[in-house]
Amino acid sequence: MAAPRRPRPTLEAVAARARVSRATVSRVVNGRTSVDPRMREAVLSAVDELGYVPNSAARSLVTRQTDSIALVVSEPPTRVFSDDPLFSLVVRTASNELEAAGKQVVLMLAGSPRAQARVEDYVAGGHVDGVMFVSMHGADPLPGAIARMGVPVVSYGRPAVAVDLPYADNDNVGGARQAVGHLLAGGRRRVAAIAGPQDMTAGQDRLAGYRDTLAAADRRALVAVGDFTRDSGAEAMRHLLADDPGLDAVFAANDLMAIGALHTLRRAGRRVPDDVAVVGFDDIEAARFTDPPLTTVRHPVVEQATVMVRLLLTPAEQHDRTRVVLPTELVVRESA
């Protein structure tokens, strides 16, 4: 027979062992600093000896904190759990940062109106202490709705909606200018682009950087729009070749679309970079293993996700800035 389970130590038992009041124990286990150091040491010793574990549900009733943060991804499951490594890297980085702060991530997908309503109800129910948004699209009503609740909110990337949210972003316009400038400096004259979704700021800004650079060089733009997936990059490349068979370079707004473009160029008998140079954006791990290895713009995903979490956890009055834009870096490999 299994041994009977020992009763869970109570706050009163810790107080009796430490010879202090129940209120003093409560202040210590809830992290209050207004406790005499000798009393604090006695309480911590009693907690250790008795194996006391604070009741998180009861504590949340007192502190009105759940120690949980929602990470809301405005995409369907097929996109989040795909071959795009950005999502898993953001989730892992945010989880590590929050764990170090004694908090946990609640991953929530909001890729449909029904899912958005479910997230809104969950947050309104007080189940999380803050919300981090990833991969927002222009018509998404959720950021505004949650911001009006007074819940701390932050965005991974500049919001596509007209809501004043703190955010951590990377220099998408500047990175695209670096990429296209590199192609022009290499003697390429007919530079096409595979743009990202135009209801997302990353897609908008990277296309703007491409257009700005070509306009400054008095070159004509040639654009096909994809959705940041490998298949869309392959399809966009087919359209570009049909529109201008003489193009000699392409800038893709992310590496997955660039990898799709490489596949199409190979099937069309175009040599990279001899006939067509290719540059991507993000510098995902797969970019080093394409044939040829992909020249790209490094998007500092880990750093950006880290800044996002710290913006959320830092009280607003302690911020020196609430909009952080990190620099990008051109990584030159064999495709351009």
TrEMBL record:
The keyword NADP does not apply. One of its GO terms (molecular function) is DNA-binding transcription factor activity. SUPFAM superfamilies: lambda repressor-like DNA-binding domains (SSF47413), Periplasmic binding protein-like I (SSF53822). The keyword DNA-binding applies. InterPro entries: HTH_LacI (IPR000843), LacI/GalR-like_sensor (IPR046335), Lambda_DNA-bd_dom_sf (IPR010982), Peripla_BP_I (IPR028082). Signal peptide: none annotated. It comes from the Bacteria. PROSITE patterns: HTH_LACI_2. Keywords: DNA-binding, Transcription, Transcription regulation. Residues 9-63 form the HTH lacI-type domain. CDD domains: HTH_LacI, PBP1_LacI_sugar_binding-like. This is LacI family transcriptional regulator. It comes from Streptomonospora mangrovi. The lineage of its organism: Bacteria, Bacillati, Actinomycetota, Actinomycetes, Streptosporangiales.
